[in-house]
Amino acid sequence: MALDYFRPQLRTNDLVQDLKWNDDLRARFETDEESVLAEYPLTGEEREAIRDRDFRRLYELGLHPYLLSQLARLVYGTGEKAGTSAPAMALIRSLLGDEYDQYMANRGD
Questions:
Q1: List of domains in the chain
Q2: pLDDT by residue (tens digit) across 64-82?
């Protein structure tokens, strides 16, 4: 299931890998996201999903699931406790959509 949508040729995969390993690129992404996005041959859908922090859409477009979590960490920072950090919760909210509230209610935190 996790790799059902994965498309290795999706350029967002390259972008996230580069952001992970290139400190200068990551710093520029934090201050001028649009200029970094312009350097990659992304589709309009990819750009919009990145801007909107729509991780579910990125997953459906073909971003590798591992890189989804990496992008969330890069965008929102690292977390306080496993599974409760802002990046983790943003990722879960985006992936679950309308099912998010029910998921949270059933977590028992």
A1: 11-107 (1.10.700.10)
A2: 998 998 898 888 876 554 4
Phi, psi angles (nearest 5°) of residue 62: 125, 10
> What are the tens digits of pLDDT across the range 5-31?
999 999 999 999 999 889 899 999 999
- Cβ atoms within 10 A of the Cβ of 18, count? 15
CB 59 within 8 A of CB 65: yes
Nearest one of 46, 56, 59, 52 to 12, comparing CA atoms: 46
Secondary-structure percent of the chain, ordered helix, strand, coil, rounded to 5: 70, 0, 30
Alpha-carbon span 58 to 76, nearest angstrom: 16
Q: What is the pTM of this model?
A: 0.73
